[in-house]
Fold each of these.
Amino acid sequence: MTQTNRIDAGGRVDRSQTLEFTFNGQRYKGLKGDTLASALLANGVDIVNRSFKYSRARGIVAAGAEEPNAVVQLGAREETQVPNVRATQQALYKGLVARSTNGWPNVQRDVMSWVGRLGGGFMPPGFYYKTFMAPASMWMTYEKYIRKGAGLGRAPHESDPDIYDHMHHHCDVMVVGAGPAGLGAALSAARAGARVILCDEQEEMGGSLLDSRETLDGVSAARWVEATIKELSSLENVTLLPRTTANGYHDHNFVTLHERRTEHLADTASEAGFAGQARARLHRVRAGQVVLASGTHERPLVYANNDLPGNMLAGAVSTYIRRYAVVPGKKLVLSTSNDHAYRAALDWKEAGRQVVAIVDARANPDGDLVRQARDSGIRVITGSSVIEARGGQRVTGARVCAIDLERFVVTGKVEELECDTIASSGGYSPVVHLSSHTGTRPQWNEELLGFLPGEVKGMISAGGVAGHFGLDETLADGERAGRQAAQATGFEDAQAITLPATRGRRDGKACALYQVPHEKTALRAPKQFVDLQNDVTAAGIELATREGFESIEHVKRYTALGFGTDQGKLGNINGMAIAARCLDRSIPDVGTTVFRPNYTPITFGAIVGRHCGELFDPKRYTALHQWHMENGAEFEDVGQWKRPWYFPRTVNGKKETMHEAVARECLAVREKVGILDASTLGKIDIQGPDAREFLGRVYTNKWAQLAPGRVRYGLMCKDDGMLMDDGTTSCLADNHFLMTTTTGGAAGVLEWLELWHQTEWPELQVYFNSVTDHWATMTVTGPDARKLLSELTDLDLDKESFKFMDWRDATVADVPARIFRISFTGELAFEINVQANYALHVWKKLFEHGEKYDLTPYGTETMHVLRAEKGLIIVGQDTDGSVTPEDLGMQWAIGYDKPFPWIGKRALSRPDTLRGDRKQFVGLKPKDPSVVLEEGAQVVFDKEQSIPMAMKGHVTSSYYSPSLGHGFALAVVVEGRDRMGQTVYLPMTDGTMHEAEIVSPVFIDPKGERQNV
């Protein structure tokens, strides 16, 4: 297909390089420098999509991130599919394949369009809520077809072949937007010596200067841009990031940038000749100051049938002509409320096409551009507006009529103008989205007829976003912002720089025109679209207000105004103005909706970066992992860690089962000595003058008097009073502690400590560092543990000099170590902590000396049996987020009389946690010694009760004990501690009914004599 709308001269495209591409199965040609949108327009493609709700034909409207219609599916193969790509932001490359996201069997002849035509009047806002409420059982069926009929593209079904990455930056000045204000700001800050990052979402920097009619220092604006970029590129303190969108602005000047690194070259990075490189990158920038130079978005006028292909923004028409050498039609009608839009008519005429008329809503426009239009012979119709577009698959005409802005009515006779393109402009909206991400509300400016950014600490607005629209004042404002940002970050000597000379242009005052009146009411007139992406009409907003929705946030959710990838870029101001008129309120009274990240769609790949596969959920290994593998260990996953589960031996050519191996390991610990690799326990180093105070606030028990060299067991509760973790904490020095946590809970506990410190108690001087990987932990436990360890250490291990719950610095196998006299088995035990790199040496030495004692390695399954025999809990197994320390019978570990309330204390005084019928921690002894109860089995009191039976508790842990010679279990049972000796029943799914006696949860050595030997 020939490029019927391409003009022979001008633009920033390279006519020597023709690029073939495919759209909706049809082959086309474009030029290097085109976007997909400009190439489609050049080839005369009118319909690029079908609308979200009514399946109406839609064409290209804009030229940048604000484009609502040309949202396409990109990719030649299944694995390269990318949904929701704006054709206006996608650079054309050879072999590009794109298709529309809506329309079946194709966008030209869409079956669903008949539903919109015939049933559109029956699908107002709230249609789905009201129509598909009943029967409720059918909703899943309804939803399937509703989702199929809507949508903006699909995710690929095969793995992405590309890689993505993240990069972290610190800079003095972050400049968002490389238009005239952004370039001025970057140049000013960079010359002052500040470290500057300048990003812009377009393929090349320059913003509006790339298609400007104005000159700087007597040369074209584009030439000045080239010289400025060249200077900035030469400075070592400047980083330039084209094709990079600032998609999120967060607290403390943290900005996230999405850089499209190879997406402009090919489907994949390897096809572009960059194998192994990232297709996209997420930059995480912490800036001293942020200069927001994001510019403005032109607002379309809201008139009847303003969604027909051929309806475009006036600024977009100029951009396509001057930057891409594409005139998107033959005959133009321009409808405007301001002077700047006249540029589109002048550019259109200079391109050799017919300007039918300029229709200006103002009675007496008198700016310089107005005079130029009249001098060039263009007809200017004043005090009027296009009230309706005519056409089917494309605009064929415009209905024009005089309007009364005050009374919101048409006042004259309608004139019909023949045309194929209607360009409209209702003014300019500063792009305040990023500033709003911080929670700051934008402020309405009546003179500018738009919202300006609210005040954000560390942010300076410049240029169009700050309400400066003239080129001279935009440049000056950018230079000022860059200089102030540099001064605020320590470059106090920053001086004003010389700016290029501009030719001043006088613009007349714009008028406020958001919705154009029609002969009929909004509810009766042809659809007047406010949000083109979500099919939100003026009538829909009016209906929402009539149905009682007065908050703009409620109007948004009822109508879908500003939803989706559009985020209200074109429609929000018009929608708010229409709601304000219907509610008889002012626009600032109605306010604006909340803008949230992301500003434009960002790929999941870029968000994830390299954190996928092995790096998303990495496997963690202890320093002794290789030894475990060599000695036949079977492993289980505990959090991210690979922990030895049990160590099966081969006896007489037969490998032990898990049951046999665990029984052997348990008896070895109870009768001789065993060793466990406990390195995975979470270890948090806590230091600071207020460390004791902090521990007292996060643990239920007291810590003020814990002396150096001593260890204490602690319980940690959520603020609802439920147990979240437990472990021992050792006092290393007066202001220095080592906290241990459960293996799976380590990261969560560290985050919990930081959360409370940073948000609730920032005045406390205390610091946390994870040292889990720094220290390897070996637990030597059993009656012969003291004998074995005494052969390898210089420490006196005597019971009186090294008591239970003591710790000491010592050497083990000539390696500096910390030895802790604590036990998770109920036996005599020593936990040896050494620097992880020395772990294997110490471990092997223990086995060399332990041979005479029959030292036995044991795994996590044996550890579970041993601790359960002693009634020791595992958080997350014996607790489930609904268990308090009181429920566990651990009143001895609760300090109700501490001077500062610990987290969860108040919750334990709630009526619910004081109930007498709460489930309590107990032991269960099956009546049949051979039975091992199922974990999770429900406890009932009456075995004759009919189904559904009243569940009175459940089994939390259950094992066979070789030491006891029978099965045993731990459980939580209603009023369990008052039911000692009673029989309970456990019904199984196969109809079996087990009986068990409620007993103490401590099955072995209830007095604790063995661990104190």
Amino acid sequence: MAAGHKLVIVESPAKAKKIGEFLGKEFTVDASVGHIRDLPNPSELPPEMKKGPFGRFAIDVDGGFEPYYVVDADKKKKVTELRRALKDADELYLATDEDREGEAIAWHLLEVLKPKVPVRRMVFHEITREAIQRAVHDTRELDTDLVDAQETRRVLDRLYGYEVSPVLWRKVKQGLSAGRVQSVATRIVVERERERMAFRTASYWDVEGEFAPGGNDGQAFTARLVEVDGSRVATGRDFADDGTLRTKGAVQLNAGAAQAVADGTREARVAVTEVSEKPYTRRPSAPFTTSTLQQEASRKLRLNSQSTMRTAQRLYENGYITYMRTDSTTLSGSAISAARQQARDMYGADYVPEAPRTYGKKAKNAQEAHEAIRPAGDTFRTPAQVAGELRGQEYALYELIWKRTVASQMADAKGSTASVRLAATLPEGTASTAEGGARTAYRRAGYAASGTVITFRGFLAAYEEGRDESRYGEDGAMGHRLPKLSEGVPLETLRAEAQGHQTSPPARYTEATLVKALEERGIGRPSTYAATVGTIQDRGYVRTRGSALIPTWLAFAVTQLLERHFPRLVDYDFTASMEEGLDAIARGDEQRVAWLQRFYFGDEATSTEGLRDLVQDLGDIDARAVSAVEIGDGTVVRVGRYGPYVEVADEDGQPRRATVPDDIAPDEMTGEKAQELLAAAADDGRVLGTDPATGHEVVARAGRYGPYVTEVLPETEEAPKRGAKKVRPRTGSLFADMDLATIDLETALRLMSLPRVVGADPESGEEITAQNGRYGPYLKKGTDSRSLTSEQQIFDITLEEALAIYAQPKQRGRAAAKPPLKELGDDPVSGRAVVVKEGRFGPYVTDGETNATLRKGDEPEEITPERGFELLEEKRAKGPTTRKRAAKKAPARKTAAKKSTTKKTAAQKTTAKKTAATTTAPRTTAKKTTG
């Protein structure tokens, strides 16, 4: 490299490419592709370290909670490339994101690369030419407080997971995981489901009428019954979740009463008794934070949290929006000017208020480190101006961000809300037969109507925030105009109808509303919301039905164990206080070691027990009790080794059990549903007949994993011989096109006979069989398998056809090449055509040389060319995946340097003969001088 060359390191290849466009030839921009180091699993530690202080957690809890880091196996090639690039550079710019995670990545790069040249920390909130050129001339030192906060979070999560997860393994089920935030998020979802399970529906009735002044149908309006004889008519809000009326003095109408009032209203004299009108003002919402962006993208674009953040990441890295992980609602002065000017140009001066709008932070523990999410630049590009560059989700999300930002600096919407009250004098004798036979007469019925009319749209001309569906319905009638009325005006009744209603249970959380709940409680941070929501689904604690999040029975068992035996660990306030502690460390107001000491070992000053002692005594945890969920009437759902099952004791006290299908939500598991499952389980299935070869009865049954047929083996009183293999009945799963209700004995016998012997290869003599497998129907000859195109071929394929398939060259994968799912165009790096294909482990993008699996949230039909190219570039940067076992010979361990209170350019450590891939992590407590 030429003298004066500068190396800039960022996290992603896409970010590196964009920044490279804005810097001169003296700069080289490279990407670390995320983190390069992390805590290893203890099993991956060198043998001599497994017996030392790092052996349990890869953290020395007695030595200042020092972590032991390892360069990731798939990052060793990248580290080598970065060292090579640094060798000829005379300055290093660490340009990772300016949050805790980005600061930690920069510190790890500093620790591993050990630069001997000046190091500068380069930060920016948007990737535009102006922002990058400002950032490169306005660098700062590495903020070790932010590094401390991120490292504390990593240590905290490792200690929590490694101490609590084994409790779940022993008491609930092997392989489960607990997490500081994920367990609390799971509890929130479980608690909502408990509310739904305890909910009891209440029925209530009211009357809707249509009225007009002077019989003028053109001025007709709708009003709803609100009172009878001076008592308020009960609505859904007046009922408790147990179905009882909780509002004192409210009248619960039944069907008969409502119909009587409706009949009486049609005959009654109706007049206006009260008219009121008041001004209506609605202010625009604040610019987007991470949380509100995820919520609004869910409502308006139907994107889940991870898809939203992945799309926003691409928009940020390609210079379209500012940094997307933020809880700030503030805008820079230039952004406010840009939004106001754009609103003025597009909608007129009347749509812009005299003074710029400012927004305060509303979220608990909100930080103001960044701006709100907005279009990048000192002037904003309109959606029309980027329409030729962005497609699909990227365009939709950019448009949403642009609208919200511009609207946030626009004038209030103005209008008026009119309300009218009506009185109907019911004919004498209007009555109903209430429950119990009592006859109640009503003489006077009161109706109410309201309507809001917008006279000046203001910010609504650009954007209107979406709303989550209300549990009790909407109260107002936006845009509904009432006729001009005055007190005493008689009205004609055009229609009066009795309407029945039922109360609704609390709505389940969606990803968006769960993120909102986490934010309101101060749990998690912008960088963790999407990951948390994804984790609880990946771990099997929550599943989705449409957009609703439904907890599994496994989530109930885990939550019950934690609530009963570790209540502090899933306490909302305690979890929020941990976030506050991490914030204090990030500000430099708290020391990481002292804070971790209190969390793990306890706080003598407050007699608070630490995590270590909490998990010591597990003898009093009743595994059977924590895995049981009471349904009522003696019905219990238990989480067993093979999944959830319902259990009820019969008259003799003997338990009757039945598997609970995965598609039954916990709030749907009523006593009646339990009896249905038990009855179905008691039914041994539909008898198809007797196998003529064995004399065994053959039945068709519905199992947890789908319908199947099986033979019923005769019971024997003889005890099996020791060591003898247990005789199991032959079974066979139904094909996809078969129906449990119509399958016959002949087909069942064929299914149970699989695998079918097709014949022998005349050349090798090897037997060829046809059978079904996890990935579909296939042929097998020795170790050579070939896919079939349909399940029916298992029965029909001949030896000649099978030999013809084996005569063809073996296709990579399980079937002949299928047409691509989507074509993305030529890759800018390789120049090859890029397509999306369906693979054995899911869809992936390929240019024929490099394959990259689509991430969760990437839909094959919607993926953009840019996203495909980005995945390939990330894959190339990582290099080939290597799966190596731990080396038999341990690498030389580096001497753990003690933390110093003096400043230094980079943490230096002595090595034994060669640099090891693993290092403990010394760090100064003072700010580092990075050049």
Amino acid sequence: MHHTKPAAGMSPRTRRHAPRKQQLAMACCLALAFPLAAQAQQSTQAAPAEQSVETLDTVRVTGIRAAIATAVETKNESTSIVEAISSEDIGKLPDISIADSISRLPGLTMQRLDGRGQVIHIRGMSEQFAGTLLNGREQVTTGDNRGVELDQYPAELINGVTVYKTPDASLIGQGISGTVDLQSIRPLSFGEQRIVVTGQGELNSFDQLTDGGDNKGYRLSASYVDQFADDTVGFAIGVARMDAPFQEKHYKSWWWANTNMWGAPQPGKPADAIALQGAEAWVKSRDTTRDGVMAVLEFKPNDRWHSVLDVYASRFDQEEWMRGAMWSNDPWFNGGAVSYSDVTTTPYHGTPVVTGGTLTGIQPALRNDNNTRESRLFSAGWNNEFKLNDTWTLSTDLSYSRAKVEDSKLETYAGRLGGVSADFRVRLSPGFGYYALPDMADPSAVYLRDPQNWGHDGRLEDSHQKDEMKAFRVAVNHVIESSDFLRSWDAGVHYSKRTKEKSAEVYFADLPGRTPTLIDPSLLSSPTDLGFAGMGHVITYDPRALLSRYYNVYISESNDDLQKDAITEEDVKTFYFKANLDMDLTDTVRLRGNAGVQYIRTEQTSEGVVIQQNQNGQELVAGSAGASYGDILPSLNLVADFGNGWNLRFGAAREMMRARINDMGARASVYVQTSQGGPSEWRGSGGNPALEPYRANAYDLSIEKYFGEASYVALAAFYKDMDSYIYTRQIPWDFSGYDYEGDQPPASDIGVLSTPANGTGGYMRGYEFSTALGGELIHDALDGFGLLFNASYTESSIDPDGPGIGSGTDTFPGLSKIVANATVYYEKHGFSARVSQRFRDPYRGEYGSIFNQRTYRYTLNERTIDLQLGYDFPESSRLSGLSILFQVNNVNNEPFRTEVSSGTHPDLFFPEEYTEYGRQYLLGFRYKL
């Protein structure tokens, strides 16, 4: 049994097709009926016996079923509503990444980035609303906000995960959506020596897509656990290395509109037709290397003192090569030089849309990009527990967490001289478009230049980030021996100081005199094939090798670039008290749980660019701003144990989550917005260091039935009343005092300032069904088979654009109304097999955009399938201790798909991005001593 921390306690917008809630409800009802039938069958085979928590302690199974049994035990024994994952053994979590494993839990799913699981969404809310802990301690992140990027943590080094869906007063760093607690091994609890070595080879189903990339990789890990000095000293260390290939084929439609409605006709295009106004296609090859080490030193010389020191460090390096083509063909590009001929249209919801023909006059920009990223993560914690006597226990915890990130993104452009023609076909459903471009790999016809008139011939951005947290906690526990209901109480104080620094330098690269230049053929690589989008081959080279030879590089920072520089600091003091309850209500009903309260005092400041009043009005200056606020957060968790495996859980709590760090940054910019033929207007944007948190009142109810060795059925409901939400507001603003550098300033000093602000929210509510079933419950012939299944339905009244302001079609970021996971497995006589499918409804996802900005995009539903096959050699074999494992991730090559509304017909949605990542094949071994 692994060590766990003691338990303390419609689509993203209005769609054309409504979710089929009735089918989901019917499936849940059928599954709820199944355990009753199974239990009845069992009762004919054996005399009835009282089902209790202790029953699970007698489980003596291994492998997949052992992991399920331990996870079910954690869920059953907890006083909070939790979900759990347990490793089958040292370094043997069921998936190749932590995010993959967690995303299979009820009510959870993951958001894919570059084809891999990176962040987790809990109960329809994005990663920004979740807390992430390592051994109970809040962690910093390599991301640019609060959401922790879980790909920084090797699955081989994590022994278990507990996801808290209801708050616990003694848990620090909780989120509104939930709290993920990653757990390392405790060597004294493990109780035996163990040495484990694993290795896997990895292959991406796409061949090498472009020069510099690879489709092959590997994973290696080793772990050692032992106990010394009569089991008073325990030590564990694990190291893991991953060299993984990621590849993608990408196509994107830029935007759709009938520009005739704006007084801008396009030659050759029917006046009543919508047309695509630009497109891109590229391939990426990405090599990701991650080295991680986790070490634990445990000391327990007697029953009075228990000390644990754990350290985790990782180094994550990534290099990416991107080659592709992109262009704009709107009526404003190059003075309206683009025209249509031989146009075909297709009716789309009653509106004609251009889906084929010939474009003349486009000037594709051929991109050769190289991006590098270096991430360094370090986390350490030292926990001491002193048992002062039989009823009093004092504990202290000292921790430190740091993340450093260095990003470098270089893009260069090339193209033919003048415009070209291309026959094209575009789809009105997700998929690759088709553009028959002329030869874009001819070294005598393709020049380094700026075909799209972006104002420079290349761009380099180097960004830096450091996220650091120091924390200390002291707590006491007092056992109450004289009470029939209050068993003990906990009280404590926690202090943390978090500092997040972000800065960036932006450089433009220009050719001498901005004169188009041919590339020395000796510097060219094999052309990159974009045939999947009909574009043929494009010229290929190493952009960093050309940078010093062909370009003049100079710093050039716009207002947007300057807004990335900020230092945000948070001093947080948390005081808490929790009463632990356990009583017998009747002879058959036991009530346990906890009731507690936290008081959190937050002091936040941000240094950067702020708006300051002067004698002439206002000006942008370097400075700082901030806020101070306090929150009282009561919480209640109750479990009514009716015996025979039946539990009824109830939770109620006040919850909070501090604002996104980007939104809190001291950053501001001022500019003048001009429109064709219309008046100019002052505009401004920036962060808001005075933002207060998201706040919610939450209620949870869950009914659970546990039976068999490792089986259960649960049905849960939750409701969150978010009375405080953060929106981007458009505020009238007096811009007097700012200098205008153009010929004619705006007629009025009153303009619009765009900034995050607190406002009222709405509700989040949903239902969750989950089950783990062993085949032996149905019939002895199905012994070894099993099923894990969960499904959830979530909905929200919150419009992220603001109450009474939004379009009514945007939804809460990360909200998929329906999320479902299913795993069918077989394990017997050393053989194991499992097939898993993960499904999520469409959602509004948050992604990185150009120039390191963040953007929201409408992501379509995903259905991914994974496969695992394994064999463990028996103890009687000379190969005892050896296991062979074969895995296929993304068996169905599920694409990433987004869509976008038309600029002139906002009720019509068109395909936007379509990206394929291929399948991941892994073949490897595991050997334990």
